[in-house]
Design a protein that fits this description.
Elements lengths: L14 E5 L4 H12 L3 E5 L3 H15 L3 E3 L7 H12 L7 E4 L14 H29 L6 E6 L13 H21 L4 E8 L5 H6 L11 H5 L10 H12 L10 E4 L8
Parallel strand pairs: 1-2, 1-4, 2-3, 4-5, 5-6, 6-7
Helix pairs in contact: 1-2, 1-8, 3-4, 4-5
């Protein structure tokens, strides 16, 4: 019997949660999921911003985009978000752990508060939100079509950064290794776990690092991407396309991987 490849990259009809989905890479992935026919929940700390982004994405791409604000730096916040999803859905096909924080300071001045804030959001939040959502992920996953967890790491977790973001780099390396642990323990439950390690993308976080003050529009991203092997920064299609692949039938056999999406910054340096 011939194999049907016609829907191999489809995620139509799936339900996804994208944390940190109100801006940056999270917003890019949420937009791609909506355009591909998924129902998408987005979460971020600032309720007004999260609500506005959800409304705008639904208008631009169609489908359902629902805002569920939460602070994922605490276990209570993770539990509240999981409860919010469980009150609305019987299962969750896709979890994208993208919410993150960074902190920059010279090594001699780096504060404990900057260390704890980043680790709590970037590592503790990933683990405990995944834990709290396991019943819904288990309900969604099958042997043929597992539920998917995608953790957003960073190339700063693969190599040292030019920026003084010590806790950020350490947290993203931890996310990559946590992904392997989760993949090992959850594969038997028909849940796959993988990580994406983005390089330069036109986000608020990178904008602050390169001196653009958090602005993402009307700034010279060409200059930022000029030294990248691909000669540019990433685009929404780049990051959303990879996430969609991992969540589709085409990505169902990928387990425990950390995939760089960086235009060659890491592998060709």
């Amino acid at each position: 019997m011939a194999v049907d490849f016609s829907n191999i990259f489809s995620i139509a009809g799936k339900t996804a949660l994208v944390t940190g989905g109100s801006r940056g890479i999270g917003e890019m992935i949420a937009a791609g999921f909506l355009a591909a026919g998924a129902k998408v929940y987005i979460s971020s700390r600032k309720a007004d911003v999260c609500d506005a982004t959800a409304e705008r994405l639904a208008k631009e791409y169609g489908g359902e985009c629902i805002s569920l604000p939460a602070d994922l730096s605490t276990v209570a916040g993770a539990q509240a978000l999981a409860d919010g999803i469980a009150a609305r859905e019987e299962k969750l096909d896709i979890l994208v752990n993208n919410a993150g924080a960074s902190w920059g300071a010279p090594i001699d001045e780096f504060p404990e508060s900057g260390w704890d804030k980043v680790m709590d959001t970037n590592v503790k939040g990933v683990f405990f939100l995944t834990q709290k959502l396991l019943p819904l992920l288990r309900a969604a996953g099958t042997a043929e079509d597992p539920a998917r967890v995608i953790n957003i790491g960073s190339i700063d977790g693969l190599q040292s950064s030019i920026f003084n973001v010590f806790s950020y780099g350490a947290s993203k390396a931890a996310v990559h290794h946590l992904t392997r642990f989760l993949a090992h323990h959850l594969a038997k439950d028909n849940i796959t776990c993988n990580a994406i390690a983005p390089g330069p993308y036109p986000t608020w976080m990178l904008s602050t690092g390169v001196g653009y003050g958090g602005e993402t529009e009307g700034v010279d991203w060409d200059a930022v991407g000029a030294n990248n092997p691909r000669g540019r920064v990433g685009t929404p299609e780049d990051i959303a396309g990879l996430a969609i692949f991992l969540c589709s039938r085409a990505g169902a056999y990928i387990v425990g991987e950390t995939i760089a999406s960086d235009g060659g910054t890491f592998n060709t340096r």
